[in-house]
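Open question from group meeting: does this chain pack into something compact, or does most of it stay loose? Before anyone orders reagents, we agreed to write out a predicted structure and look at it together. Recording both the input and the output here so the notebook holds the full record.
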Amino acid sequence: MGIKEGIKMEEEQGLTRIGVSLPSNLLNKFDGIIRGRGYSSRSEGIRDAIRAYIVEYEWMEREEGEEIGTITYLYDHSQRGLGDELTEAQHHYLDMIKTATHIHLDEENCFEVVVMRGEAKKIKELAEDIMSLKGVKHVKLTTTHGGI
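Structure tokens returned:
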């Protein structure tokens, strides 16, 4: 998503150069995506990705009331103590968690889906708690009103 696709962003002014350190496999995947989408440069792709991240964050910040949500995440199960930290985080939201599914993908990676129903801000809190843990590789939060 970007300005060219109709997302209104504050007017951008000036450019600032930054340095970013990334694992080569992540950068290679990103470069493939930006080539496939027709970006003229890596910087253009990064700017668009940052805009999309900002829009999603601001949308999440506005969420209120009762929601149904899923938190999906991929993590390195060999990360010492991470399984216990994830379980502990979920225990703080037992009244809202309807089900959770755990899938062993390979020797290193696990994938979980947590289905919740309740206050949107609390669903977001759990997603952010999970995001902050070392060894969690990817987190996606999806919510909907669902006629609650």
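Observations to bring back to the group:
Residues 22-62 form a domain with the Arc Repressor Mutant fold (CATH 1.10.1220).
The helical segments are 24-36, 42-62, 82-91, 120-131.
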